[in-house]
Protein backbone atom coordinates (compact mmCIF):
# COMPACT_ATOMS: atom_id res chain seq x y z
CA UNK A 1 0.00 0.00 0.00
CA UNK A 2 2.77 2.46 0.89
CA UNK A 3 4.52 1.74 -2.45
CA UNK A 4 2.65 4.55 -4.17
CA UNK A 5 4.28 6.98 -1.74
CA UNK A 6 7.85 5.75 -2.18
CA UNK A 7 10.37 7.08 -4.66
CA UNK A 8 14.08 6.82 -5.41
CA UNK A 9 15.88 8.23 -2.32
CA UNK A 10 17.90 11.42 -2.81
CA UNK A 11 20.96 12.62 -0.91
CA UNK A 12 21.45 16.14 0.47
CA UNK A 13 24.65 18.17 0.33
CA UNK A 14 25.27 21.37 2.22
CA UNK A 15 28.39 23.14 0.98
CA UNK A 16 30.23 25.98 2.72
CA UNK A 17 27.17 27.68 4.15
CA UNK A 18 27.49 30.96 6.06
CA UNK A 19 24.34 32.64 7.27
CA UNK A 20 23.93 35.78 9.38
CA UNK A 21 20.95 37.72 10.66
CA UNK A 22 22.27 41.25 10.58
CA UNK A 23 25.50 41.21 12.55
CA UNK A 24 24.74 37.84 14.17
CA UNK A 25 26.46 34.91 12.49
CA UNK A 26 24.16 31.94 12.90
CA UNK A 27 25.78 29.34 10.61
CA UNK A 28 29.53 29.17 10.05
CA UNK A 29 31.00 27.24 7.14
CA UNK A 30 28.56 24.33 7.41
CA UNK A 31 29.39 21.31 5.23
CA UNK A 32 27.29 18.15 5.37
CA UNK A 33 26.71 15.10 3.26
CA UNK A 34 23.46 13.26 4.00
CA UNK A 35 23.14 9.94 2.22
CA UNK A 36 20.13 8.80 0.20
CA UNK A 37 17.64 7.08 2.49
CA UNK A 38 19.38 8.17 5.66
CA UNK A 39 17.64 9.28 8.85
CA UNK A 40 19.81 12.17 9.94
CA UNK A 41 19.61 14.46 12.99
CA UNK A 42 20.70 18.02 13.68
CA UNK A 43 21.35 17.93 17.41
CA UNK A 44 22.41 20.83 19.60
CA UNK A 45 21.36 23.23 22.35
CA UNK A 46 18.73 25.91 21.87
CA UNK A 47 19.89 28.69 19.58
CA UNK A 48 22.75 26.76 17.92
CA UNK A 49 21.28 27.19 14.44
CA UNK A 50 19.53 23.84 13.79
CA UNK A 51 16.22 25.32 12.68
CA UNK A 52 17.96 27.97 10.62
CA UNK A 53 19.83 25.26 8.74
CA UNK A 54 16.68 23.20 8.22
CA UNK A 55 14.80 26.24 6.92
CA UNK A 56 17.67 26.98 4.59
CA UNK A 57 17.30 23.51 3.05
CA UNK A 58 13.53 24.04 2.78
CA UNK A 59 14.05 27.40 1.08
CA UNK A 60 12.70 29.71 3.80
CA UNK A 61 16.13 31.19 4.58
CA UNK A 62 18.87 32.49 2.33
CA UNK A 63 22.57 32.02 2.99
CA UNK A 64 25.18 34.68 2.31
CA UNK A 65 27.54 32.00 1.06
CA UNK A 66 27.39 28.32 0.06
CA UNK A 67 24.80 26.10 -1.58
CA UNK A 68 22.40 23.23 -1.02
CA UNK A 69 22.02 20.25 -3.34
CA UNK A 70 19.29 17.61 -3.29
CA UNK A 71 19.73 14.54 -5.45
CA UNK A 72 22.74 16.24 -7.04
CA UNK A 73 20.73 19.29 -8.12
CA UNK A 74 21.62 22.73 -6.80
CA UNK A 75 18.37 24.05 -5.31
CA UNK A 76 19.82 27.17 -3.65
CA UNK A 77 17.99 29.56 -5.97
CA UNK A 78 14.64 27.74 -6.05
CA UNK A 79 11.68 28.98 -3.98
CA UNK A 80 10.36 26.57 -1.33
CA UNK A 81 7.44 25.30 -3.42
CA UNK A 82 9.72 24.24 -6.26
CA UNK A 83 12.20 22.32 -4.09
CA UNK A 84 10.35 19.06 -3.71
CA UNK A 85 11.21 19.16 -0.01
CA UNK A 86 8.57 18.24 2.58
CA UNK A 87 8.68 19.98 5.94
CA UNK A 88 6.70 19.23 9.09
CA UNK A 89 6.57 22.18 11.46
CA UNK A 90 6.61 22.02 15.23
CA UNK A 91 3.12 23.57 15.29
CA UNK A 92 1.74 21.11 12.64
CA UNK A 93 -0.07 24.01 10.83
CA UNK A 94 -3.21 22.03 9.95
CA UNK A 95 -6.29 23.67 8.42
CA UNK A 96 -8.80 23.69 11.30
CA UNK A 97 -11.90 23.93 9.08
CA UNK A 98 -10.97 20.96 6.89
CA UNK A 99 -11.37 17.28 7.67
CA UNK A 100 -8.30 15.10 8.07
CA UNK A 101 -8.87 13.72 4.59
CA UNK A 102 -9.10 17.21 3.04
CA UNK A 103 -6.03 18.36 4.93
CA UNK A 104 -4.03 15.57 3.32
CA UNK A 105 -5.64 15.89 -0.12
CA UNK A 106 -5.20 19.67 -0.28
CA UNK A 107 -1.51 19.64 -1.12
CA UNK A 108 -2.10 17.08 -3.86
CA UNK A 109 -4.85 19.17 -5.46
CA UNK A 110 -2.60 22.22 -5.34
CA UNK A 111 0.09 20.28 -7.14
CA UNK A 112 -2.44 19.15 -9.74
CA UNK A 113 -2.01 15.47 -9.03
CA UNK A 114 -4.47 13.59 -11.28
CA UNK A 115 -7.83 13.16 -9.55
CA UNK A 116 -7.76 9.36 -9.76
CA UNK A 117 -4.45 9.30 -7.90
CA UNK A 118 -5.44 11.59 -5.03
CA UNK A 119 -7.77 9.14 -3.26
CA UNK A 120 -5.30 6.24 -3.16
CA UNK A 121 -2.46 8.50 -2.06
CA UNK A 122 -4.44 10.07 0.79
CA UNK A 123 -5.56 6.62 1.87
CA UNK A 124 -2.00 5.25 1.76
CA UNK A 125 -0.66 8.21 3.72
CA UNK A 126 -3.33 7.94 6.44
CA UNK A 127 -2.76 4.21 6.69
CA UNK A 128 0.99 4.73 6.93
CA UNK A 129 0.58 6.95 9.99
CA UNK A 130 -2.13 4.76 11.54
CA UNK A 131 -5.04 7.12 10.95
CA UNK A 132 -7.12 5.11 8.51
CA UNK A 133 -10.77 5.49 9.44
CA UNK A 134 -10.26 9.01 10.88
CA UNK A 135 -10.52 10.88 7.58
CA UNK A 136 -13.84 12.53 8.49
CA UNK A 137 -12.66 14.13 11.71
CA UNK A 138 -11.48 17.69 12.07
CA UNK A 139 -8.12 18.53 13.71
CA UNK A 140 -9.86 19.77 16.89
CA UNK A 141 -11.34 16.27 17.33
CA UNK A 142 -7.88 14.70 17.43
CA UNK A 143 -5.26 14.32 20.16
CA UNK A 144 -1.91 16.08 19.81
CA UNK A 145 -0.26 12.87 18.66
CA UNK A 146 -2.93 12.31 16.03
CA UNK A 147 -2.62 15.87 14.76
CA UNK A 148 1.08 15.32 14.45
CA UNK A 149 0.38 12.24 12.31
CA UNK A 150 -1.94 14.22 10.04
CA UNK A 151 0.85 16.73 9.47
CA UNK A 152 3.17 13.87 8.61
CA UNK A 153 0.62 12.18 6.33
CA UNK A 154 0.03 15.45 4.52
CA UNK A 155 3.73 15.84 3.87
CA UNK A 156 4.53 12.30 2.72
CA UNK A 157 1.42 12.24 0.48
CA UNK A 158 3.08 14.71 -1.90
CA UNK A 159 6.05 12.32 -2.20
CA UNK A 160 8.81 14.81 -1.41
CA UNK A 161 12.40 13.96 -2.30
CA UNK A 162 13.40 14.60 1.30
CA UNK A 163 11.54 15.06 4.57
CA UNK A 164 12.44 17.73 7.11
CA UNK A 165 11.12 17.49 10.66
CA UNK A 166 11.49 20.41 13.05
CA UNK A 167 11.24 19.08 16.63
CA UNK A 168 8.20 17.03 15.59
CA UNK A 169 7.73 15.36 18.97
CA UNK A 170 8.14 18.34 21.26
CA UNK A 171 4.40 18.90 21.77
CA UNK A 172 3.74 15.31 22.84
CA UNK A 173 3.92 13.91 26.36
CA UNK A 174 6.88 11.74 27.30
CA UNK A 175 5.23 8.35 26.74
CA UNK A 176 3.71 9.29 23.40
CA UNK A 177 7.05 10.68 22.25
CA UNK A 178 8.67 7.29 22.67
CA UNK A 179 5.90 5.58 20.73
CA UNK A 180 5.72 8.14 17.92
CA UNK A 181 9.47 8.25 17.42
CA UNK A 182 9.48 4.49 16.88
CA UNK A 183 6.65 4.79 14.37
CA UNK A 184 8.45 7.61 12.65
CA UNK A 185 11.48 5.43 12.23
CA UNK A 186 9.40 2.57 10.82
CA UNK A 187 7.67 4.87 8.37
CA UNK A 188 10.97 6.36 7.26
CA UNK A 189 12.40 2.89 6.67
CA UNK A 190 9.37 1.72 4.74
CA UNK A 191 9.54 4.70 2.39
CA UNK A 192 13.37 4.89 2.40
CA UNK A 193 12.82 8.61 2.61
CA UNK A 194 15.88 10.76 3.31
CA UNK A 195 14.90 12.54 6.51
CA UNK A 196 16.40 15.27 8.68
CA UNK A 197 15.19 15.48 12.23
CA UNK A 198 15.92 18.56 14.30
CA UNK A 199 16.10 18.04 18.06
CA UNK A 200 17.87 19.22 21.18
CA UNK A 201 17.18 15.87 22.85
CA UNK A 202 20.10 13.46 22.59
CA UNK A 203 18.00 10.42 23.46
CA UNK A 204 15.62 11.18 20.62
CA UNK A 205 18.46 11.57 18.14
CA UNK A 206 20.22 8.44 19.41
CA UNK A 207 17.19 6.21 19.20
CA UNK A 208 15.83 7.07 15.76
CA UNK A 209 18.68 8.37 13.66
CA UNK A 210 21.37 6.68 11.58
CA UNK A 211 23.76 9.58 11.95
CA UNK A 212 23.84 12.86 13.83
CA UNK A 213 25.46 16.24 13.23
CA UNK A 214 26.17 17.81 16.63
CA UNK A 215 26.00 21.60 16.40
CA UNK A 216 27.07 24.38 18.72
CA UNK A 217 27.06 28.12 18.04
CA UNK A 218 26.45 27.66 14.32
CA UNK A 219 29.34 25.25 13.87
CA UNK A 220 29.02 21.53 13.12
CA UNK A 221 31.17 19.99 15.85
CA UNK A 222 31.11 16.38 14.66
CA UNK A 223 29.14 14.00 12.45
CA UNK A 224 28.79 10.31 13.20
CA UNK A 225 26.57 7.45 14.31
CA UNK A 226 25.25 7.77 17.87
CA UNK A 227 27.80 5.22 19.08
CA UNK A 228 30.72 6.86 17.29
CA UNK A 229 29.88 10.18 18.89
CA UNK A 230 29.51 8.63 22.32
CA UNK A 231 32.64 6.48 22.17
CA UNK A 232 34.86 8.86 20.21
CA UNK A 233 33.75 12.44 20.84
CA UNK A 234 35.89 14.97 18.98
CA UNK A 235 35.84 17.52 21.79
CA UNK A 236 34.52 18.29 25.26
CA UNK A 237 31.31 19.79 23.91
CA UNK A 238 30.32 16.61 22.07
CA UNK A 239 31.39 14.46 25.03
CA UNK A 240 29.16 16.45 27.37
CA UNK A 241 26.21 16.74 25.00
CA UNK A 242 25.96 13.03 24.23
CA UNK A 243 25.84 11.32 27.57
CA UNK A 244 27.40 12.36 30.84
CA UNK A 245 31.09 13.20 30.90
CA UNK A 246 33.50 13.64 33.80
CA UNK A 247 35.99 16.31 32.84
CA UNK A 248 39.04 16.66 35.05
CA UNK A 249 41.17 19.77 35.37
CA UNK A 250 44.90 19.21 35.38
CA UNK A 251 47.78 18.90 33.02
CA UNK A 252 49.53 16.50 30.76
CA UNK A 253 52.90 15.23 31.96
CA UNK A 254 55.53 13.49 29.95
CA UNK A 255 58.00 11.06 31.42
CA UNK A 256 60.17 9.79 28.62
CA UNK A 257 57.87 7.90 26.27
CA UNK A 258 55.17 7.52 28.91
CA UNK A 259 52.37 10.05 29.28
CA UNK A 260 50.33 10.77 32.35
CA UNK A 261 47.62 13.25 33.22
CA UNK A 262 48.16 14.93 36.54
CA UNK A 263 44.86 15.86 38.07
CA UNK A 264 44.87 19.04 40.15
CA UNK A 265 45.84 17.79 43.61
CA UNK A 266 48.60 15.56 42.34
CA UNK A 267 47.19 12.16 41.38
CA UNK A 268 48.68 10.93 38.15
CA UNK A 269 46.63 8.89 35.70
CA UNK A 270 48.90 6.94 33.39
CA UNK A 271 47.60 7.21 29.84
CA UNK A 272 47.31 4.42 27.30
CA UNK A 273 50.17 4.40 24.79
CA UNK A 274 49.43 6.22 21.56
CA UNK A 275 46.75 8.49 22.99
CA UNK A 276 46.92 11.80 21.10
CA UNK A 277 47.20 14.80 23.36
CA UNK A 278 45.78 17.97 21.77
CA UNK A 279 47.13 21.22 23.25
CA UNK A 280 45.27 22.23 26.40
CA UNK A 281 43.62 18.83 26.56
CA UNK A 282 41.49 17.75 29.48
CA UNK A 283 40.87 14.27 30.77
CA UNK A 284 37.41 12.83 30.12
CA UNK A 285 35.78 9.61 31.26
CA UNK A 286 32.23 8.34 31.60
CA UNK A 287 30.50 7.58 34.93
CA UNK A 288 30.59 3.86 34.13
CA UNK A 289 34.38 3.88 33.55
CA UNK A 290 35.02 4.25 37.25
CA UNK A 291 34.12 2.00 40.17
CA UNK A 292 33.24 3.17 43.66
CA UNK A 293 34.98 1.33 46.49
CA UNK A 294 35.25 1.71 50.24
CA UNK A 295 38.37 3.68 51.28
CA UNK A 296 41.55 1.65 51.37
CA UNK A 297 40.25 -0.98 48.97
CA UNK A 298 42.59 -2.46 46.43
CA UNK A 299 41.89 -2.51 42.73
CA UNK A 300 44.75 -4.08 40.81
CA UNK A 301 45.45 -2.44 37.47
CA UNK A 302 43.29 0.58 38.26
CA UNK A 303 44.10 4.08 39.38
CA UNK A 304 42.71 5.03 42.73
CA UNK A 305 41.44 8.48 43.66
CA UNK A 306 40.26 9.39 47.15
CA UNK A 307 37.20 11.50 47.74
CA UNK A 308 33.95 12.07 49.58
CA UNK A 309 30.45 11.09 48.48
CA UNK A 310 28.43 14.31 48.04
CA UNK A 311 25.20 12.97 46.61
CA UNK A 312 23.44 9.86 45.49
CA UNK A 313 20.64 9.38 42.95
CA UNK A 314 18.74 6.18 42.36
CA UNK A 315 18.27 5.72 38.61
CA UNK A 316 16.70 2.27 38.57
CA UNK A 317 19.29 0.07 36.89
CA UNK A 318 22.11 2.01 38.52
CA UNK A 319 22.94 4.40 41.31
CA UNK A 320 24.68 7.61 40.37
CA UNK A 321 27.10 8.94 42.96
CA UNK A 322 28.70 12.33 43.06
CA UNK A 323 32.17 12.19 44.61
CA UNK A 324 34.32 15.24 45.32
CA UNK A 325 37.88 14.57 44.27
CA UNK A 326 40.66 17.16 44.13
CA UNK A 327 38.32 20.10 43.58
CA UNK A 328 36.28 18.35 40.91
CA UNK A 329 33.00 16.50 41.20
CA UNK A 330 33.17 13.05 39.65
CA UNK A 331 30.00 11.18 38.72
CA UNK A 332 30.07 7.42 39.14
CA UNK A 333 27.44 4.93 38.00
CA UNK A 334 27.31 1.77 40.09
CA UNK A 335 25.03 -1.02 38.94
CA UNK A 336 22.05 -1.49 41.24
CA UNK A 337 21.84 -5.12 42.17
CA UNK A 338 19.48 -4.89 45.11
CA UNK A 339 19.98 -3.59 48.63
CA UNK A 340 20.37 0.04 49.58
CA UNK A 341 23.66 0.77 47.86
CA UNK A 342 26.93 0.58 49.71
CA UNK A 343 28.08 4.14 50.44
CA UNK A 344 26.05 6.93 52.07
CA UNK A 345 26.45 10.66 51.48
CA UNK A 346 29.38 11.97 53.51
CA UNK A 347 31.35 8.71 53.37
CA UNK A 348 34.96 8.61 52.27
CA UNK A 349 35.37 6.59 49.13
CA UNK A 350 37.96 5.40 46.67
CA UNK A 351 37.42 5.69 42.95
CA UNK A 352 39.02 3.06 40.76
CA UNK A 353 39.47 4.48 37.30
CA UNK A 354 39.92 2.26 34.28
CA UNK A 355 42.81 4.17 32.71
CA UNK A 356 42.34 2.34 29.42
CA UNK A 357 39.00 4.11 28.97
CA UNK A 358 40.04 7.70 29.56
CA UNK A 359 40.24 10.21 26.71
CA UNK A 360 42.10 13.44 26.19
CA UNK A 361 39.91 16.00 24.48
CA UNK A 362 40.35 19.58 23.36
CA UNK A 363 37.96 22.12 24.88
N1 LIG B 1 14.63 35.77 11.92
C1 LIG B 1 15.64 35.94 12.77
N2 LIG B 1 16.21 37.14 12.95
C2 LIG B 1 17.24 37.33 13.80
N3 LIG B 1 17.82 36.33 14.52
C3 LIG B 1 17.29 35.11 14.39
C4 LIG B 1 16.19 34.83 13.51
N4 LIG B 1 15.90 33.52 13.60
C5 LIG B 1 16.79 32.98 14.48
N5 LIG B 1 17.62 33.92 14.94
C6 LIG B 1 18.74 33.70 15.88
O1 LIG B 1 19.60 32.75 15.29
C7 LIG B 1 20.11 31.84 16.25
C8 LIG B 1 19.79 30.40 15.82
O2 LIG B 1 18.39 30.19 15.87
P1 LIG B 1 17.75 28.78 15.50
O3 LIG B 1 16.28 28.93 15.62
O4 LIG B 1 18.30 28.29 14.23
O5 LIG B 1 18.30 27.88 16.69
P2 LIG B 1 17.89 26.41 17.10
O6 LIG B 1 19.16 25.68 17.28
O7 LIG B 1 16.92 25.86 16.14
O8 LIG B 1 17.22 26.66 18.51
P3 LIG B 1 15.87 26.06 19.14
O9 LIG B 1 16.17 24.63 19.53
O10 LIG B 1 15.67 26.95 20.33
O11 LIG B 1 14.80 26.20 18.11
C9 LIG B 1 19.48 32.23 17.56
O12 LIG B 1 20.42 33.01 18.27
C10 LIG B 1 18.28 33.07 17.18
O13 LIG B 1 18.00 34.02 18.16
CATH fold naming of the largest domain:
Rossmann fold
What spatial form do the alpha-carbon principal axes imply?
elongated
Using DSSP, what is the number of strands? 21
SSE succession: EEEHEEEHHHEHEHEEHHEEEEEEEEEEE
Low-confidence stretches: none
| Whole-number mean pLDDT | 89
Largest sheet strand order: 6-7-8-3-9-10
**SS content category:** alpha+beta
In DSSP terms (H or I, runs of 4 or more residues), the helix count works out at 8
Which superfamily, in CATH terms, is the homologous superfamily of the largest domain?
Answer: P-loop containing nucleotide triphosphate hydrolases
Tell me the name of the CATH class of the largest domain: Alpha Beta
Note the beta-strand portion.
Answer: 25-35%
Distance between the termini: 50 Å
**Main beta sheet:** 6 strands, mixed
Amino acid sequence: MSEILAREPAGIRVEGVDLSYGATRVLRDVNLEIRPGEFFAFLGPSGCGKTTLLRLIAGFNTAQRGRVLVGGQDISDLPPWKRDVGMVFQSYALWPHMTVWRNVAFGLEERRVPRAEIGPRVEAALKLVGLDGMGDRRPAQLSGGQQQRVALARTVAVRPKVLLLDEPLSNLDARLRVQVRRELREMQQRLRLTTIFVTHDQEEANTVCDRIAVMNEGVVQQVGTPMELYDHPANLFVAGFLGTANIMPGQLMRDGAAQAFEIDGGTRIPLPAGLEAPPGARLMFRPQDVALLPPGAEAPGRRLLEGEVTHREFLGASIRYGVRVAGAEVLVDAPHTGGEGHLPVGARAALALDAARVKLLPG
